[in-house]
Amino acid sequence: MQWASRMQQIPPYLFLELDNLVAQERAKGRDIISLGIGDPDQPTIPVAVEALKHAVDNPQTHRYPNYLGSPEFRQAIADWYNQRFQVQLDPHNEVVGLIGSKEGIAHLIWAMAEPGDIVLVPDPAYPVYHTQTILAGAKPYPLPLTAQNHFLPDLRAIPEDIWARAKMLWLNYPNNPTGAVAPYDFYQEAVDLCRTHDVLLCSDGAYLEMGFDGYKAPSVLEIPGAKDVAIEFYSLSKPFNMTGWRIAAAVGNSSAVAALGTLKSNLDSGPFTAVQDAAIAALQSDPRAFFADMNALYQERRDIAIRALHAMGIAAATPAATFYLWFPAPFGMTAAEATTYFIQEAGVLLTPGEAYGAHGQGWLRISLTIDTPRLREGMERMAEAVRNHPPA
Ligand SMILES: *Cc1c(COP(=O)(O)O)cnc(C)c1O
């Protein structure tokens, strides 16, 4: 049997590889502390669990769901955007339900990018933007995120001929993997440039509800007129601890929402109705106190890990949002060398930065989605491995 040649263009999905590596080490009897994967360790918001139990008892939820998300789910998303960001959305034309935002991100690229087109993709970034662009036959144009530019792409540095061929610009703030945040002015500039060049601005808002020390991330749709050029992905996965439930929405530009809906309705049948009902309950429960508790927990962990890294002599910046720490590998190691070193010498799994793009080379990511005592132990083990390292 001969698989399609496009299968050869898919790089191995990093987290699958890391899962395998950890499984191998554990099979040898080693205790591995995984700081690798960004997946909340705390339980789902209780109101969603209760609502799901109730919804599942109703046989009406057992049938094919509404392809584009139920009217009630889309209304709940619109109401939340109004309350949280003071952004008005028409639930019929400007909201589409998704089976997780990863699905929507991938499909939007298929709806928009053609062979020969350019897609502007930050580097480092969540790998789906890059991989799906390649699969669709288009070309990712990397936008370097560096410590010097505060991990915000220099949009003014994109050459005119690249803008002319570009169809989409991907942004993700608060950012995975760097933990960086985007100021309002940056979004203003991005909207202006996308309008000038007729480019769809795609904002991945997976971490919009995360923020420390009082920081609250803006939505790109807060920029007046943003809906002319922008679509945003709002996921319930990370803020409500619902990664396994697969529920999200895309909101904003009505023609982008419609195109995504058309493509999706030929591929899937919408999120399970009972899960949509649970999501509605979560959104309508006034979740601000829940978000505040989660952010306080991640902030405590952030401070434990940052203090430990600084004590190791590692210059890690303190992020204002997300549950990630992004820092240079010690001793001038490559990220791959450092990842192997910490697995072998400390039994701690980190994520190598180059998994997110060439500009992630030499960087490592820690995810704070682990029980606090285990995080503390992991940091202690890393510190010991650093002390034991032969002087460079
Ligand atoms: C986790 C994550 C997603 C995926 O979220 P789902 O809604 O669970 O598919 C998308 N983008 C980024 C940047 C993420 O970190």
TrEMBL record:
The chain crosses the membrane at residues 304-327. Its cofactor is pyridoxal 5'-phosphate. It is an enzyme of class 2 (transferase). Its EC number is 2.6.1.-. It comes from the Bacteria. CDD domains: AAT_like. The keyword Transferase applies. One of its GO terms (molecular function) is transaminase activity. Keywords: Aminotransferase, Membrane, Transferase, Transmembrane, Transmembrane helix. Residues 31-381 form the Aminotransferase class I/classII large domain. It holds the Pfam family Aminotran_1_2. PANTHER family: AMINO ACID AMINOTRANSFERASE (PTHR42832), L-GLUTAMINE--4-(METHYLSULFANYL)-2-OXOBUTANOATE AMINOTRANSFERASE (PTHR42832:SF3). Belongs to the class-I pyridoxal-phosphate-dependent aminotransferase family. This is Aminotransferase. The lineage of its organism: Bacteria, Bacillati, Bacillota, Clostridia, Eubacteriales.
